Amino acid sequence: MTTYETTGAADAPRTRTHTWQPRPEPTPELLAMSGLDVLRAAAKGDLPAASIMSTLGFRLTEVGDGYTVFEGDPGDHLLNPMGTVHGGFLATLLDSALGSAVMTRLPAGTAYTTVQLGVHMIRPVFADTPTLRCEGTALHVGRTTATAEARVTGTRDGKLYAHGTTTCAVLRPS
Predict the structure, then answer these.
(1) Going by C-beta distance under 8 Å and a sequence separation of 6 or more, which residues neighbour residue 50?
(2) DSSP of 102-147
(3) End-to-end CA distance of the chain
(4) What pLDDT digit, counting tens, does each position of 82-119 carry?
(5) For helices 87-103 and 35-44, what crossing angle results, to 10°?
(6) Rounded to an integer, what distance in angstroms lies between the CA atom of residue 32 and that of residue 5?
(7) Greatest CA span in the chain, whole angstroms?
(8) Cα 75 from chain centroid (whole Å)
Protein backbone atom coordinates (compact mmCIF):
# COMPACT_ATOMS: atom_id res chain seq x y z
CA MET A 1 0.00 0.00 0.00
CA THR A 2 1.30 3.44 -0.89
CA THR A 3 0.02 6.72 0.45
CA TYR A 4 0.81 10.27 -0.62
CA GLU A 5 0.49 13.45 1.38
CA THR A 6 0.36 16.86 -0.26
CA THR A 7 -0.57 20.02 1.58
CA GLY A 8 -0.47 23.70 0.69
CA ALA A 9 0.94 25.09 -2.54
CA ALA A 10 1.57 22.98 -5.63
CA ASP A 11 5.33 23.29 -5.07
CA ALA A 12 5.14 22.25 -1.40
CA PRO A 13 7.17 19.18 -0.38
CA ARG A 14 5.36 15.86 -0.72
CA THR A 15 5.56 12.73 1.38
CA ARG A 16 5.21 9.22 -0.01
CA THR A 17 4.95 6.25 2.32
CA HIS A 18 4.70 2.63 1.31
CA THR A 19 4.38 -0.60 3.22
CA TRP A 20 5.22 -4.12 2.21
CA GLN A 21 5.28 -7.63 3.56
CA PRO A 22 8.70 -9.25 3.97
CA ARG A 23 9.66 -12.12 1.71
CA PRO A 24 8.52 -15.39 3.28
CA GLU A 25 11.06 -17.88 4.58
CA PRO A 26 11.72 -20.72 2.11
CA THR A 27 9.63 -23.36 3.86
CA PRO A 28 9.32 -26.88 2.40
CA GLU A 29 5.77 -26.00 1.31
CA LEU A 30 6.96 -22.89 -0.55
CA LEU A 31 9.90 -24.74 -2.12
CA ALA A 32 7.46 -27.40 -3.39
CA MET A 33 5.49 -24.79 -5.40
CA SER A 34 6.13 -24.24 -9.11
CA GLY A 35 6.89 -20.72 -10.32
CA LEU A 36 3.37 -20.50 -11.72
CA ASP A 37 1.88 -21.50 -8.36
CA VAL A 38 4.02 -18.95 -6.49
CA LEU A 39 2.98 -16.11 -8.79
CA ARG A 40 -0.69 -17.11 -8.73
CA ALA A 41 -0.57 -17.12 -4.92
CA ALA A 42 1.09 -13.69 -4.92
CA ALA A 43 -1.50 -12.31 -7.37
CA LYS A 44 -4.30 -13.54 -5.08
CA GLY A 45 -2.59 -12.08 -2.00
CA ASP A 46 -1.85 -15.47 -0.42
CA LEU A 47 1.88 -14.70 -0.66
CA PRO A 48 3.41 -11.23 -0.31
CA ALA A 49 4.17 -9.25 -3.43
CA ALA A 50 7.78 -8.40 -4.23
CA SER A 51 8.73 -5.30 -2.23
CA ILE A 52 9.96 -3.44 -5.35
CA MET A 53 6.34 -3.27 -6.47
CA SER A 54 5.19 -1.07 -3.59
CA THR A 55 8.40 0.94 -3.78
CA LEU A 56 7.77 2.00 -7.39
CA GLY A 57 3.97 1.70 -7.53
CA PHE A 58 3.14 -1.29 -9.71
CA ARG A 59 1.30 -4.57 -9.23
CA LEU A 60 0.87 -8.05 -10.69
CA THR A 61 -2.59 -8.26 -12.25
CA GLU A 62 -2.58 -11.45 -14.38
CA VAL A 63 -0.67 -14.72 -14.36
CA GLY A 64 -0.84 -17.59 -16.85
CA ASP A 65 1.41 -20.28 -18.26
CA GLY A 66 4.27 -18.31 -19.83
CA TYR A 67 2.41 -15.02 -19.42
CA THR A 68 2.22 -12.22 -16.86
CA VAL A 69 0.75 -8.73 -16.70
CA PHE A 70 1.85 -5.92 -14.41
CA GLU A 71 0.28 -2.47 -14.18
CA GLY A 72 2.08 0.62 -12.96
CA ASP A 73 1.10 4.14 -12.04
CA PRO A 74 3.46 6.95 -13.04
CA GLY A 75 3.71 9.93 -10.71
CA ASP A 76 5.85 12.92 -9.91
CA HIS A 77 7.88 10.84 -7.41
CA LEU A 78 9.40 9.06 -10.45
CA LEU A 79 10.53 12.13 -12.41
CA ASN A 80 14.05 12.67 -13.71
CA PRO A 81 15.63 16.15 -13.99
CA MET A 82 14.00 16.66 -17.42
CA GLY A 83 10.48 16.31 -16.00
CA THR A 84 9.67 12.90 -17.49
CA VAL A 85 9.31 9.61 -15.64
CA HIS A 86 12.73 8.01 -15.21
CA GLY A 87 13.42 5.20 -17.68
CA GLY A 88 14.28 2.95 -14.76
CA PHE A 89 10.58 2.75 -13.93
CA LEU A 90 9.81 1.31 -17.37
CA ALA A 91 12.90 -0.93 -17.24
CA THR A 92 11.82 -2.31 -13.85
CA LEU A 93 8.25 -2.85 -15.06
CA LEU A 94 9.61 -4.70 -18.11
CA ASP A 95 12.13 -6.73 -16.08
CA SER A 96 9.36 -7.80 -13.70
CA ALA A 97 7.00 -8.94 -16.46
CA LEU A 98 9.80 -10.62 -18.44
CA GLY A 99 11.28 -12.53 -15.50
CA SER A 100 7.90 -13.47 -14.10
CA ALA A 101 6.79 -14.84 -17.49
CA VAL A 102 9.86 -17.08 -17.37
CA MET A 103 9.13 -17.97 -13.73
CA THR A 104 5.67 -19.30 -14.66
CA ARG A 105 7.39 -22.07 -16.63
CA LEU A 106 9.84 -23.12 -13.90
CA PRO A 107 9.33 -26.25 -11.82
CA ALA A 108 9.37 -26.27 -8.03
CA GLY A 109 12.70 -25.39 -6.46
CA THR A 110 14.02 -23.68 -9.60
CA ALA A 111 14.95 -20.01 -9.70
CA TYR A 112 16.13 -17.59 -12.38
CA THR A 113 18.14 -14.40 -12.64
CA THR A 114 18.25 -11.80 -15.38
CA VAL A 115 21.56 -11.81 -17.27
CA GLN A 116 20.55 -9.49 -20.12
CA LEU A 117 17.81 -6.89 -20.38
CA GLY A 118 17.12 -5.00 -23.61
CA VAL A 119 14.81 -2.01 -23.29
CA HIS A 120 13.48 0.24 -26.05
CA MET A 121 11.72 3.44 -24.96
CA ILE A 122 9.22 4.57 -27.59
CA ARG A 123 7.60 7.66 -26.08
CA PRO A 124 7.98 9.68 -22.89
CA VAL A 125 5.98 8.98 -19.78
CA PHE A 126 4.91 11.96 -17.68
CA ALA A 127 3.76 12.23 -14.07
CA ASP A 128 0.13 12.43 -15.21
CA THR A 129 0.32 9.57 -17.74
CA PRO A 130 -2.49 7.14 -16.88
CA THR A 131 -1.78 3.58 -15.73
CA LEU A 132 0.61 1.58 -17.88
CA ARG A 133 0.16 -2.13 -18.64
CA CYS A 134 3.15 -4.42 -19.20
CA GLU A 135 2.51 -7.84 -20.74
CA GLY A 136 5.35 -10.37 -20.65
CA THR A 137 5.55 -13.62 -22.61
CA ALA A 138 8.09 -16.41 -22.21
CA LEU A 139 9.54 -17.42 -25.57
CA HIS A 140 11.96 -20.18 -24.53
CA VAL A 141 12.57 -21.81 -21.16
CA GLY A 142 15.32 -24.39 -21.36
CA ARG A 143 17.53 -26.27 -18.94
CA THR A 144 20.00 -23.39 -18.39
CA THR A 145 18.64 -20.31 -20.18
CA ALA A 146 15.31 -18.65 -20.91
CA THR A 147 14.13 -15.74 -23.05
CA ALA A 148 11.04 -13.55 -22.98
CA GLU A 149 9.57 -10.42 -24.55
CA ALA A 150 7.28 -7.72 -23.16
CA ARG A 151 5.43 -4.56 -24.15
CA VAL A 152 4.34 -1.53 -22.09
CA THR A 153 1.14 0.08 -23.36
CA GLY A 154 -1.19 2.75 -22.03
CA THR A 155 -4.37 1.38 -20.48
CA ARG A 156 -6.39 4.33 -21.82
CA ASP A 157 -4.71 5.22 -25.11
CA GLY A 158 -3.38 1.77 -26.11
CA LYS A 159 -0.14 3.39 -27.30
CA LEU A 160 3.16 1.56 -27.09
CA TYR A 161 5.47 3.25 -24.55
CA ALA A 162 8.30 0.68 -24.40
CA HIS A 163 9.17 -2.90 -25.24
CA GLY A 164 11.94 -5.22 -24.23
CA THR A 165 13.53 -8.64 -24.15
CA THR A 166 15.45 -10.65 -21.61
CA THR A 167 17.77 -13.58 -21.30
CA CYS A 168 17.67 -15.31 -17.95
CA ALA A 169 19.90 -17.92 -16.36
CA VAL A 170 17.84 -20.84 -15.05
CA LEU A 171 19.10 -21.87 -11.61
CA ARG A 172 18.20 -25.52 -11.02
CA PRO A 173 18.59 -27.06 -7.56
CA SER A 174 21.81 -28.96 -6.96
Answers:
(1) 23, 42, 96
(2) HHTTPPTT-EEEEEEEEEEE-S---TTPPPEEEEEEEEEE-SSEEE
(3) 37
(4) 999 999 999 999 999 999 999 999 999 999 999 999 99
(5) 120
(6) 42
(7) 58
(8) 16
